Amino acid sequence: MDLQKALGYTFRDPAHLRLALTHPSTKLPDNQRLEFLGDAVLEFCVSDMLYHKYPNLHEGELTARRAALVCERTLSAIARSLDLGRWLLMGHGEEQTGGREKPSILADAMEAVLAAIYIDGGYEAARDVIRVLFANDEKLIAWRGHDDKSALQEYTQANGLELPAYAIIAQEGPDHDRRFTAQVSILGKPVATGVGNSKKTAEQAAAKKALEILKK
Length: 216
Description:
Blueprint: H1 2-7, H2 14-20, H3 32-53, H4 59-69, H5 72-81, H6 92-96, H7 103-121, H8 123-133, H9 137-144, H10 148-158, E1 165-172, E2 179-186, E3 189-196, H11 199-214
Antiparallel strand pairs: 1-2, 2-3
């Protein structure tokens, strides 16, 4: 599975990963218990990483940095970088309402996946994956504040609007230099477009423009 390649970890028992990707809306055994465990595994491993990486930081500074790294926005951003939403198993109703892009669902699934790695391969396996995913903590903390898709979704939810819907409406250029154009719509009406060298960056660009338009 491409997700295992992106994670840098191959499951001995794929059933652990499947459970981690199963949303409660399926009515199947779901990932909620794994999410509970993953929250603890993640917090410990990030704490350990920060403790050794920043020997001169005081407790308060370490706590603030950890909080910024293990929050929903950062986890959902990491999940998007792994294309985690693509692999989620969810009910039709949840999928129709944009479940694969909801920050809360992505963050919960990310925690569940980390717990699944812990159960499947032990503490060292989980620690190694988390160290790679969170290695550039400075960038992640900055990126957390610039996840425009999450920010747009938070804006629409706060204002009683439907979730944004994204579509790739054009692509051009050779394979090694492809350019994508994404369009974001709200309530079925196109709001903005964005261009990027991947579908994800194009969608982020479209979300940023949409936020600027909506806030005017």
